Amino acid sequence: MASEHRLTDGVSVEAIKAFFADLKREFPDTYTEMTTEDACKQLVVPRTRQDNCAYVEQLRKQSPEHVNKATVFVSHAWRYKIADVLNVLLEFADEQARKDAAQPVFFWFDLFMNNQNANVTANLPQEWWSTTFKQSIANIGHVLLVLMPWRDPVPLTRAWCLWEIFCGISNEATEVSIRLPKSEELELVLAIADDYEAVTDTLVRVQAQRADAFNPHDKHMIFTAIESWAGGFSAVNQAVKDKLRAWCLQKAVGAVEAMRARGEDSTDAFAGLCGQVGTVLSQFGEHNKAIAYYETALAIRLRTEGEKGRNAAALYGNLGNAYGDKGDFDKAIELCKKALAIKVETLGEKHSSTAVTYNNLGNAYRNKGEYDKAIEFYEKDLAITVEVLGEKHPSTASTYGNLGAAYHSKGDHDRAIHYYEKALAIQVETLGEKHPTTASTYNNLGAAYKNKGDYDRAIECYEKALAIKVETLGEKHPSTAQTYNNLGIAYKNKGEYDRAIAFYEKDLTITVETLGEKHPGTATSYFNIGLLHAKRGDKEQACAYIQHALDVFATTLGPHHPNTRKAKQNLQRIRGGAVTRQHTSTQHVSESQLQQQNVLAHRNLLLRFISSAVVYQAFAPQRNLLMRFLGAVAQVHAEARRPANTGSDGEDKKTETGHDCPRGCSAPARALYKDACKCPGEPLIGWLRKRGRLRAAFRTRWCALIDDRLTYSKGPSLAERGRIPLSSVLSAELVHGGEELHVAVSGRTFVFRLHARSDTSLADWCTAINSRINATT
């Protein structure tokens, strides 16, 4: 390691081959069983002890051409057999050499690069782990994870390896490759074909907080670095799991293509593998590809088993779920009904698998907005599930929860609460109070009570959800901070500003720790607290918080950013000083500007009508919005034909800036116009395609820009899959010629593409996000 403790140099492929040859020559009978640690103690240390240096330093003196800037960082476990590790490195280098315009590979391999005669990490400062070490891996640009054995991957239990993997995958520009020894490749493929879920369950048992290290000092330093990262252990665990799932997906697809290349694409084995891969692809949001694999498998099964065979119904059901996930609910319903008919005939009405299909039909109808039909099928599912599995079973609780969601979507909040509470009681008894699913149901209950207007009960439920999050995720987790923020909003809406401030302060403490003091998200927290102090009449505190927010906004976003201007305007308003031109001055509004305002107002009213039709499926609100839209159009067009109302100097009367009605409009028209102009602050909703973490596949998601967050889920009425607090957004911009929307937060960029059924362009989403970014309260 260089004197400044940066990871810089690497050794060539020829140097790896030479070392391997030395190992075989020195230990001909035992080298295949030697671990990396054995090779260190028995070969590297004896050769470097006299010079007290790293193996690479000797290599540099003897063969300097075999030392150069590292291009690949090797992550491995010292318990591995050294022969397996070296073979993986050579196989990887051979793959790289076959690529077009491939550059020579130089491996940063700790066995060679560190001085094995001393503890090189003992005197490193704590910040080295989260700064220099991480930056060094980014500079190398490629991490090679040597993974074995796949049934019990050693790197996932070692603190060093987990931190190395995370440092690679947390940087978008760093490539991460995963390799198994050739001896394990075939075994993994066979396991995937037999039970993909079992394979992924094995691979993703990642718990960084339980990882170990040979050196307790190293473990402490690494754990401290993990805890300092936004999200801590939870973020590291999730990032590594996502990467391993994506790698396993590549292996599964590769196995299918290999069978196809061998001419085995009409066998039952091929059908089974296609079915497994379809499920994997569906989980990754690649619904069209999943459907193609399912249909391939179904064609083979129908030919070999017939429609009443044991596999056809399952494939029809999987196809239905895939179509439902991509938003084609009519096709989903058609396929699920085919699966149901087969199951009823072959398994009987009172079978758990039949109940699952009733549940799937309920989901499809709920996503389609036909809530009564959804409830009908959920109730059939419930009757079978209770009879087969009993009342006190998690599956029964799940069905109660689905019934609650259907009634919630329908607007029947009392019935929703009834079913959510039944689900909660079972979950507490079967899963325990401190379980993520239990927390989710508490959250659903809180939402139902909130929509009903019972804010006290809503707060009670949110507080229980918070307690579970604190215990399971920790106090310093972004999700915990978001829950504090939600409670703050709830109390603010109740008018209890002191309580609201207390929760906002808790949110602020975590936000400062995870994002830093000089961050737009932190500034937003300061700004929100300042506004609440203003509402409660504490002018001095309000000015102090908003001034701090203004300083951070100006530093991080610039003096002309909307958030900076908004903070400045509110600060001036609260201080009672000069107000902005927006409130005091007037400006001339040209005829073209008036026409543009009219068009925008009409467009916004129309978008509201479309949104209402999609989300609420309620005829009265649709009719009202449509009539208001048509009325506004007729009113403004009629008034546009009237003579202009001019002043004594012959010029048009000037209007103030902001949401003011065009000149000459009647009172009803002005009301319609101003209401329409408020629309940009209302929810923006629709289908988009969202890329998974770590360059995974794009998944179809129902997105909603509501209040202070951008949320995404599998359907309009389904639970959130995730949310992006606007307070954490650093930027939102269109890239690749406008084909992708990139929403950047600290440590990650969310990537969206347009969906075929999108009613709103990516430019509209980008504009809407930027108009609200960090400016919610």
Automatic annotation (TrEMBL):
PROSITE patterns: PH_DOMAIN, TPR, TPR_REGION
Organism: Salpingoeca rosetta (strain ATCC 50818 / BSB-021)
Protein name: Mbre TPR repeat protein
Keywords: Repeat, TPR repeat
The organism's place on the tree of life at top rank: Eukaryota
SUPFAM superfamilies in the record: PH domain-like, TPR-like
Span list, region Disordered: 640-661
SMART domains on file: PH (SM00233), TPR (SM00028)
